[in-house]
Amino acid sequence: MRWHNSAMHINPTLLRINTWALIGIWLLFTPRPTVAFARRPNSAQQAPVPATPPPNPAPSPAPANPPAPSTPVHPKAPLPPRERAWQILDDACTGDKAGDRATAILVLGLIPNDSKSTRLAQKALTDDRPEVRAAAAAALGNMQSRTSIPKLRAATEDQDPTVVLAAAHSLDLMHDNSAYEVYYEVLNGERKAKKGLIASQASMLHDPKKMAELGFEEGIGFIPFAGIGWGAIKAIRKDDSSPVRAAAARVLARDPDPATTQALTEAAGDNSWIVQVAALEALAKRGDPSALPTVVHYMSDDKSAIKFTAAAAVIHLSAVRQTHRRKPRAASDHKP
């Protein structure tokens, strides 16, 4: 009973001491979270305050026609000789220079059995310049375009005598009797059926220079060498040997000897451009594709007559080579 009373009456001071002791023990052995304290920089080392980022802008509406993605531009590959040749002639036939149009149209006569060359020449019959119409009439005869005979007959009624004579020459090449009407007029001053257009300019028929320009000068033939146009007249008057060598080159076009191809190849580099044109024309008419490398070279010549004649020769010789390549395959297809 004595113990019970002593336990009920504990000293308050002792109780407080024991309580604080228990709290200290609890704090000492209980794990606490680590608190990181940022070191505040001093004024000399104070970090700059980052700017407040702007608010995200509203997305802009997509364009109605967005541009196509750009592709790398590669240099164009050079055109094959035949395509480059047609490009040269196309540009000249539709160009502004009447002299270039006339020469380019005239050399189309070196490309027979070709619908494009025929179409270009027929269109040129309506050109506003007489030298171009005359060249077109001559070209259609040289390419033996019998489908163009009605158009050539109509051209014999042209107001310009050069066109009339060119058309008559082409009709005669294709053995069309309507050509005789024109030549009858040249001889007698009038046509059989009616008064002709050439007779109205009778003074021209008695002018040697005019007749030379029309191609009736002895040794030259109509439209000199079928590829040099009217400009050759001035050169012919200054050089007596060029027409003779050019005429020889034209005749050699029919020589069956393969060695003649080499001779004409060398003549293509002659000092006289008249001989050069005649040699290129002869190489085209021979139809020997082995001459192609030489002819292609002259498509870059500065003189239009040489360049255009070479281009026409390249087109024709390329077609001949393609035909030769097809023949062996066609023959092998029929073998048993």
Describe the protein in words.
This protein is mainly alpha-helical and 336 residues long. Among the domains are: 113-206, Leucine-rich Repeat Variant, CATH 1.25.10; 216-327, Leucine-rich Repeat Variant, CATH 1.25.10. The chain is 56% helix and 0% strand. The protein is built from 17 helices and no strands. The longest helix has 30 residues, at 304-333. The model is unreliable at 35-39 and 215-230 (pLDDT under 50).
SSE topology:
Elements lengths: L1 H7 L3 H18 L51 H13 L4 H10 L7 H10 L5 H13 L6 H7 L5 H13 L5 H10 L13 H4 L2 H6 L18 H7 L2 H12 L6 H9 L5 H14 L5 H6 L6 H30 L3
Structure keywords:
336 residues, mainly alpha, Leucine-rich Repeat Variant
Q: What is this entry, summarized?
A:
This protein is mainly α and 336 residues long. 56% of the residues lie in helices and 0% in strands.
In the CATH hierarchy, what is the architecture of the domain at 216-327 at level 2? Alpha Horseshoe
CATH class term of the domain at 216-327? Mainly Alpha
H/E topology pattern: HHHHHHHHHHHHHHHHH
Cα separation of the termini: 143 Å
| Computed CA radius of gyration, to the nearest angstrom | 48 Å
Assign the CATH topology of the domain at 216-327.
Answer: Leucine-rich Repeat Variant
